[in-house]
Amino acid sequence: MNPPRVLVVDDNALNSKLTRLLLTGHGYEVETAANAAEALESIARARPQLILMDLQLPGMDGFELTRRLKQDPAMKRIRIVALTAYAMKGDEQRAADAGCDGYISKPIDTRRLPALVEHFLSLDAPAS
Fold first, then answer.
1. CA triple 48-126-100, angle to 5 deg
2. Considering the entire predicted model, what is its pTM?
3. Which of 4, 51, 99, 108 is most buried, judged by most C-beta within 10 A?
4. In angstroms, rounded to a whole number, what is the distance separating the alpha carbons of residues 61 and 20?
5. pLDDT tens column, 46-92
6. Number of other residues whose CB lies within 10 A of the CB of residue 86
7. Does residue 127 surpass a pLDDT of 50?
8. Domain containing 65 — which CATH number?
9. Can you spell out the DSSP letters for 13-44?
10. What is the structure's pLDDT at 125?
11. Considering the domain boundaries, does residue 107 fall inside one?
């Protein structure tokens, strides 16, 4: 059985690298993307089971990218979890309203992230 595929969408190279190394070390197959265009290319190549989505991206932000993915019948079943330092009052609700299946604030807790990823992957698939 193939390891779960996770896409990390974050324009901060250090955050992407840390998340990729951490999850790869726990057996996940991880790709990274620095913006919405790279994320869409990566998804077209190999559909992930989970996307960790930074909400503050250059160009199209994570809210809009999430909305677009969730509106696409071929992609709406991908779990999307907001992974962001953008943690102002109401942002978790905005992320949920955009279609995010969960919310993790930065800085990430490196001890808890693999378990959180496992949790989100274990949830029932979103309704189609």
1. 70
2. 0.93
3. 51
4. 21
5. 999 999 999 989 999 999 999 999 999 999 999 999 988 866 778 88
6. 18
7. no
8. 3.40.50.2300
9. HHHHHHHHHHHHTTT-EEEEESSHHHHHHHHH
10. 53
11. yes
